[in-house]
Amino acid sequence: MSSSVRRVSTLGVIAGTAMLIGLTPLAAKAQSGLSGTLIITNKTPATATIIDVVSGRTLATLPTGHGPHEIVVSRDGKTAVVTDYGTGPQPGNTLTVIDVPGRRVTKTISLGQYRRPHGIMLMPGDSIAAVTVEADKAVLLVRLATGEIAKTVMTNQNGSHMVGITADGTRGWTGDIGSNTVSELDLVRGTSIRTVAVPAQPEAINVTPDGKEVWVGSNATGRVSVVDAATGQVTTAAEGFGWPYRVLFSPDNRTVLLPDLRGETLRFLERSTRKELGRIDLKGKAPQGIIFEPSGRYAFLSFSGAGVVAVIDVAARRVVREIPAGETPDGVAYTTLK
């Protein structure tokens, strides 16, 4: 798929959520001011669910490869791409491409010898996807129209799991879980530039659009760090997480949203000062994938433990709605396209 230190109390979150229980679709629309479409990956059943945001109705449930994890959608909202990571005993090696308005799978792209595709971002122009292949220590640049692998960019680091790319598409960064590093990649030349040592088991990662800051979450230490891309210096932004699952910047780049899967909270940080602005208690929800809608007023957060996607009012820092999303939802994509 994130403004004063003010915690949102559990009671306040529960009360705010409870007030919305039983709202009609029209009332929910009036409350949220939202429309558009969500596309969610469901890991256990190996499906992707297409959902109308206004009504909360599931429009289609489509088959994917085994263990679908991450998902991206094109800027025009017409095409979604899912990484089919596979299961424990069965590594995946495919991408599932979805026609969103047509509500159908258009193709399955084989990655051949490359296994465990996971993190995915679309390059500028949306014709090429940058995809980590965790088992092969690389990022692939895949042409979506043809399925051709245009470049294989080696990280040579263990467990290159997630990927972030700069707005101009020239640089990519991976979190290398098994090597305790992040890797900077030249996506134009197709080469690795450097690795930077970070706190152990870095999974969550994102890079600011200008490429100056790389935010990374450490599974082993429960710490979120920031790498200065110019100097390689690593500093701590926040601590005390159980599992800092993802890092998401707001569209204006001022706020960072950090879902904690094991600690079952969602934290809000001011990016420039790294001051915590508040948090939401999400006990029993198992928060995972997260994405903003374009205005930045709302974020969508999958609750793997509850089988729903929550609509988060970012300024109020509360859950305003939950939408059924199928079993074990993880990756979340959103388009304004209806």
In short:
It contains two helices and 28 strands. It has 338 residues and is mainly beta.
Structural description of this entry:
The protein has 338 residues and is mainly beta. It has helices spanning 10-18, 25-32, and strands at 37-42, 47-52, 58-63, 68-73, 79-86, 91-99, 104-110, 117-122, 128-133, 138-143, 149-154, 160-165, 171-176, 181-186, 191-197, 202-207, 213-218, 223-228, 234-238, 248-249, 255-260, 265-270, 276-281, 287-292, 298-303, 308-313, 318-324, 329-335. It has a four-stranded antiparallel beta sheet, with no helix packed on it. Strands 4-5-6-7 form a four-stranded antiparallel beta sheet, with no helix packed on it. Strand 12 and strand 13 (171-176) form a beta hairpin. Residues 1-31 have low confidence and may be disordered.
Keywords summarizing the entry:
single chain; 338 residues; mainly beta; four-stranded antiparallel beta sheet; disordered N terminus
What order do the helices and strands come in, and which of them pair?
Elements: H1 10-18, H2 25-32, E1 37-42, E2 47-52, E3 58-63, E4 68-73, E5 79-86, E6 91-99, E7 104-110, E8 117-122, E9 128-133, E10 138-143, E11 149-154, E12 160-165, E13 171-176, E14 181-186, E15 191-197, E16 202-207, E17 213-218, E18 223-228, E19 234-238, E20 248-249, E21 255-260, E22 265-270, E23 276-281, E24 287-292, E25 298-303, E26 308-313, E27 318-324, E28 329-335
Antiparallel strand pairs: 1-2, 1-28, 2-3, 4-5, 5-6, 6-7, 8-9, 9-10, 10-11, 12-13, 13-14, 14-15, 16-17, 17-18, 18-19, 20-21, 21-22, 22-23, 24-25, 25-26, 26-27
